[in-house]
UniProtKB/TrEMBL annotation:
Keywords: Cytoplasm, Initiation factor, Protein biosynthesis, RNA-binding. This is Eukaryotic translation initiation factor 3 subunit D. The keyword Metal-binding does not apply. GO terms for molecular function: mRNA cap binding; translation initiation factor activity. InterPro entries: eIF3d.
Length: 577
């Protein structure tokens, strides 16, 4: 038989919530069946209601663990006034073992997250809502606006600098394009970067000249014990073009090759995609032979400075830091440096023939010419005259060395002061030079590879004072293996030969005559012009540089540049250029 649960009469309380204080005063005629001595906890409307009764509580376990739990004062706890037991026999549906039959609604507030390592790795806690801190968001918005403003200014300055350099390059055309010249081809540099061609090891046909040994004491130079750059006015330097070389003429008569050039011309072609300034190369097709020449007083005889830099150089006529003035200064420094770092004790390494451009009794600079031949195609060979400046003894064997010098004219243009950074941050100095003089360093590396030099020495030469372009000091000398250095500057030998091969194939399709390759002064491309046979002769009028670039070179007290077998003073340099 199922027991009946009688609720009884519930008195009405007109004064508030809960039972009245005295049921007899409110409803005297009403009898109540409420259990006596039932405690009651008062509450108000603003309080939240919790559980009225917990039928899932296990009284046996609660009584057993009552001593281990702290007193909470809540209903159902040990010290609660509502702690009483129900007669479960009277309620057979409320089976304590069947807990799945009851579902309770948890009205407790969600606990606030405890930020920290424990909460971060707790997989059972619910995912917290993302906090949007207004102050943090405001900072982010301000930083984003500042970053966008800097990017706009950077792009604006960069476009202005590039525009200035492009406009300046228009006035630096290496040769004046005459109206009667006929343009045949226009080749963009983008096509050069995709070319590739492999050549076999070259063959040495002849070695001429004599070399002095390299002085290893210069490897120990630091900015703290710098050395003054000396001047060598009595030594003769030769910048002879291809067709004026008696050895190349002899090899051409013997049909040793089809194409003839010098290492300077080949390096200019190989590194053409890196060039910014204008340059020109004369091409002569004679019979089935091809000669690559340079003009007298060509810019190929000089060395560019800050050619690939984003910082434009001043264009003032009398400024010592203009592009042309720095090129002349770099030529002085490079030639004198190549002779100062030698052991000048009279001990020389001589080769098959003496210097082919020197007269008997002349004091000649230390240089050796290697006439080498490469096979380009089936019966097409290329012969080039390559130069090395010194030898060094390694393991009782003589190794060829090329000598070149980087020059610093004003630290504010490069952003790196060599006197302070060269000894402690040599890598940063070299990286800056690779950025500002990428074409010049690539050409030096290409010339060293063409000559099969075992070592290339780079000197760091700076002015005694930024406004004094007459006196210089050597701050350090660093040696590299050419092929390792080529990999470091991302110079691909297969791409170098691919450029040469494509230009040779293009020129071999031309008719007999004279042509000129001109690097466009404002665009990354090269043009081929057909020129008259008497072009670039002594009576031919040309303007390699505008009047604005004709600055005065260093005076007679500066380091002398000797070219074409004679000591060249300032007036002769100005006349040549």
């Amino acid at each position: 038989m199922v027991g009946v649960f009688e609720v009884g009469a519930v008195p009405f309380n007109p004064d508030g919530w809960g039972p009245p204080e005295s049921t007899t005063a409110t409803a005297p005629s009403t009898t109540t069946t409420l259990p006596p001595h039932v405690p009651y906890a008062t509450f108000s409307r603003s309080e939240r209601l919790g559980r009225i009764a917990d039928f899932t509580r296990s009284f046996s376990s609660s009584n057993a663990n009552a001593s281990n739990r702290p007193s909470s004062g809540k209903p159902g706890s040990a010290d609660s006034p509502f702690d009483f037991s129900l007669d479960l026999d009277a309620f057979p549906l409320a089976n304590p073992d069947d807990g799945s039959a009851f579902r309770l609604v948890d009205t407790k507030p969600t606990p606030r997250p405890k930020f920290g390592p424990k909460w971060r790795f707790n997989q059972h806690r619910p995912q917290l809502p993302q906090r949007r801190d207004e102050e943090v968001e405001a900072r982010k918005r301000e930083a984003e606006k500042e970053r966008a403003r800097r990017d706009r200014l950077y792009n604006l300055n960069r476009s202005n600098q590039n525009q200035q350099r492009r406009e300046a390059a228009i006035f630096k055309s290496s040769v004046d394009i005459q109206p009667e010249w006929n343009m045949l081809e226009q080749i963009p540099f983008s096509t050069f970067t995709k070319l590739s061609f492999s050549v076999s090891d070259p063959e040495d046909l002849l070695l001429c000249g004599a070399l002095e040994y390299y002085d290893r004491s210069f490897d120990r130079i630091t900015p703290k014990n710098e050395r003054r750059l000396e001047r060598f006015k009595n030594r003769n330097f030769f910048k002879v073009t291809t067709t004026d070389d008696p050895v190349i003429r002899r090899l051409a008569n013997e049909d040793k090759a089809t194409v003839f050039a010098t290492d300077t011309i080949l390096a200019t072609l190989m590194c053409a995609p890196r060039s910014v300034y204008s340059w020109d190369i004369v091409v002569q097709r004679v019979g089935n032979k091809l000669f690559f020449d340079k003009r007298d007083g060509s810019q190929l005889d000089l060395l560019s400075v800050h050619e690939t830099s984003q910082e434009p150089l001043p264009e003032a006529k009398d400024d010592i830091n203009s592009a042309y003035s720095l090129s002349v200064e770099a030529a002085y420094i490079n030639q004198n440096f190549s002779q100062q770092v030698l052991v000048r004790d009279g001990n020389k390494v001589s080769f098959d023939e003496p210097n082919p451009f020197a007269n008997e009794g002349d004091e000649v600079a230390s240089v050796a010419y290697r006439y080498r031949r490469w096979k380009l195609d089936g019966d097409m060979y290329l012969v080039a005259r390559c130069e090395v400046q010194s030898v060094v003894e390694v393991n009782n064997k003589n190794s060829f060395v090329t000598l070149n010098a980087l020059n610093e004219f004003d630290p504010k243009y490069s952003g790196v002061d060599w006197r302070q950074k060269l000894e402690t941050q040599r890598g940063a100095v070299l990286a800056t030079e690779l950025k500002n003089n990428a074409n010049k360093l690539a050409k030096w590396t290409a010339q060293a590879i063409l000559a099969s030099a075992d070592l290339m020495k780079l000197g760091y030469v700076t002015r005694v004072h930024p406004r004094d372009h007459f006196n210089h000091v050597i701050l350090g000398v660093v040696g590299y293996k050419p092929r390792d250095f080529a990999s470091q500057i991302n110079l691909n030998t297969s791409n170098m030969w691919g450029i040469v091969k494509s230009i040779v194939d293009l020129c071999m399709k031309l008719n007999e005559g004279k042509y000129v390759l001109v690097k466009d002064p404002s665009k990354p491309q090269v043009r081929i012009y057909e020129v008259p046979a008497d072009a670039f002769e002594n009576d031919y009028v040309e303007e390699p540089l505008p009047e604005e670039e004709q600055v005065q070179p260093p005076s007679e007290d500066a380091e002398g540049v000797e070219a074409n077998g004679t000591t060249t003073d300032d007036k002769e340099i100005e006349a040549q250029t």
